Amino acid sequence: MWKLWAGLVIGGAAFGASADLILHNGKVVTVDGAFSVQQAVAAAGGRITAVGSNEAVLRERGPATKVIDLKGKTVLPGLIDAHVHVLGSALSEWREKLPVFDSIATIQKWVREKAKITPKGRWIIVPRTLPPRLKEMRMPTKQDLDVTTEHPVAFDGSYVWSANTMALKISGITRDTPNPPGGEVVKGPDGEPNGILRNAANLLKGLPRAEEYPESERLAAIEKMLRLYAEAGLTSVADRAVSPAEAKLFEKLKAEGRLPIRVALTWRINSNPPVEQIVKMI
After folding, report:
1. Mapping DSSP to helix (H, G, I), strand (E, B) and coil, where does residue 49 land?
2. Are 223 and 258 in contact, with CB atoms under 8 Å apart?
3. pTM over 0.70
4. What is the CATH number for 164?
């Protein structure tokens, strides 16, 4: 994939050699200061060498140049997504597709079906879903999740979770439970927990451990996710929360030539230990 960037050379060549690739007869969105749209673009050595009119750019053609007639199609600069979680996204559907939740009713239906095949007393975890995707535009409450009374149910809303009555009971969460640091046990008008836990999912007891994947599957999942990003027009992404172990996976893919796009990694430090220990880790 040729990566186009803002600050392109307009009209002239940056190199004396012939272009490797010319795209012409299209709409080339340059994202320059004037946000101009040109007709053609040339590239050589993985770099943009010329952008401008068809006539001007086609002068860069040589005997080995690949020339593509865009027939009016649009060329965009490579897009950058500055906040992704590659491994989590990749593994979320690696072994099975995620259910589609667009309302609390669809969540309730899924919980009922899961309850039929889950032993009594075992946790049912609703896969991560952000409330803005739901028709109701809100978090489910314990009443919403009480469609089964024989299973503890938790709804994963990322930083905010919610739980049904049984989940609150076995976790010992009551009206007298103190809020954890930076979190909140949300109460209803009656003063009782309504099931919503803001930055307080750690109060839930006995949650099943995350599914484990061998390194080979994690590597393959990351590579597949990055290729999906590339197909969507992304040429760079920034993963905002990786551990040192996860960073090594990306390093291995890079060494094997299996990174189809650029990736920037941000180390998420465990902030729970004492400050001195955190400084030492850094």
Report:
1. strand
2. yes
3. yes
4. 3.10.310.70
Query: Any idea which residue has 């809100």 for tokens?
Result: 138
Please name the helix (run of DSSP H) or strand (run of DSSP E) that holds residue 58, with its range, or none.
Answer: helix 54-58
Determine contact, residues 132/110, Cβ cutoff 8 Å: no
Point out the least confidently predicted range of 80-94, 221-235, 259-273.
Answer: 259-273
Q: Which amino acid is at 95?
A: R
Cα separation, 211 vs 13, whole angstroms: 53
Total domains in the fold of the chain: 3
Give the chain's end-to-end CA distance (angstroms, integer): 36
Instruction: Return d(Cα 238, Cα 164) in angstroms, integer.
Output: 35
Range of the domain at 29: 21-77
Give the tens place of pLDDT for each residue, 116-174. 999 999 999 999 999 999 999 999 999 999 999 999 999 999 999 999 999 999 999 99
Report the C-alpha gap between 105 and 101 in whole angstroms.
Answer: 9
List, in sequence order, the alpha helices (H) in 81-132: 86-92, 104-117
- The single-letter DSSP state of residue 202 is G
Do residues 178 and 218 share a domain?
Answer: no
Quick check: is 118 in a domain? yes
Strands 74-75 and 79-84, sheet pairing: unpaired
